[in-house]
Amino acid sequence: MIREFDRWAYENRLRSWGAEWKWLMASVLLLIVMTGGWREQLIVLGGMAYWIMGSAGVPFSLYGKAMLAACAFLAPSLLTLVVSVSFPFRISMMDSQLQLAAELAIRSLAAWSCLFFALITTPMPELFSVLRRMHLPAALVELCFLMYRFIFLLEQAAAELMLALRARSGGAHWRHGVMLMYQLWMKTWQSYEAYSRSLAARGGMATVAYTHQAKKASVRPVDIAAGIIMALLLGVAWRKG
Questions:
Q1: 79 with 53, same domain?
Q2: Which Pfam families does the record cross-reference, listed alphabetically (predicted)?
Q3: Are residues 113 and 96 in the same domain?
C-alpha cells in the first residue's frame, strides 16, 4: 500500500500544482480543523474527500484504506474514553463521554484527511524541497528523508522474508512469527546501515534533494468553484459558532 501511495503522488491530476500551494492549503485547513467546531471539521472532511478523489483522481479504494488505517489507530484511544473497567472485573459504558469521543473522532479524521491530501498529491522529494526553502534545520530535513527511505526498506524486507517463509512451510506456528520479526529487524538494520553509508559517501542529503517542480499549474473552473463554495461554507459555519 505504501508504494501505491507513492505512485499516486506522481500520477494524480493535481501533480501540476506547486507543492508550496498544496502544503499551504493543507496547513490552513488543518488549522481550521484544530481551532473550529464540528461543523467546520465536517466541511473540511467532505472538502478533502472531493479534492483527493474528485479533483486529484485518487481511487476510492485507496482513500478508504487510508481512512481505515486512521480509524484502526483511533479506535483504541476512543475506547479508553467510553469504556470503564473496574475491580472486580466489570466493564461499563460511560454515556457522558460519547459526545466527546465523537467530537475527537471527527477532528482526528478531518486532520488526517488534510495531511493525506498533502501526501497523496505531492511527491515526498518535493515536500522536502519545500521544507528546505522554509529554512528548516538541515538535520531535520535529512532525518525526514531517511525515515521516508526507511519505510521502503522495511516494506521490501518484510515482503522478501514473508515470501521465503511461505515457500518453506507456510509459517503456521507462532514461533515462525517470532522468527520472522527477528529476521526482519536484522535484515532491515543491515539495509539501513548500507544505505546510510552510501548516502554519506555521496555527500548527504544535499546531493539527492529533488527540487524539480511541475511545468505549469492548470486549475479547472470546477476546482475554483469548489474552493469558493468550501470557503463560504466554512465562513457560515464559523459565524454560527
A1: yes
A2: CbiQ (PF02361)
A3: yes
Q: Are 162 and 180 in contact (CB under 8 A)?
A: yes
For helices 98-121 and 19-35, what crossing angle results, to 10°? Answer: 180
- How many domains, the chain? 2
For each of the chain's 241 residues, which pLDDT tens digit applies? 677 877 888 888 888 888 888 888 899 999 999 988 888 999 999 999 999 998 888 999 889 988 998 888 888 888 888 887 777 777 777 777 888 888 889 999 999 999 999 889 888 888 888 888 888 887 777 777 777 777 777 777 667 766 766 666 655 554 555 666 666 667 666 766 776 677 667 665 554 455 555 555 567 788 788 888 888 888 888 887 6
CA dihedral 72→24→12→211, nearest 10 degrees, is: -110
0.90 exceeded by the pTM?
no
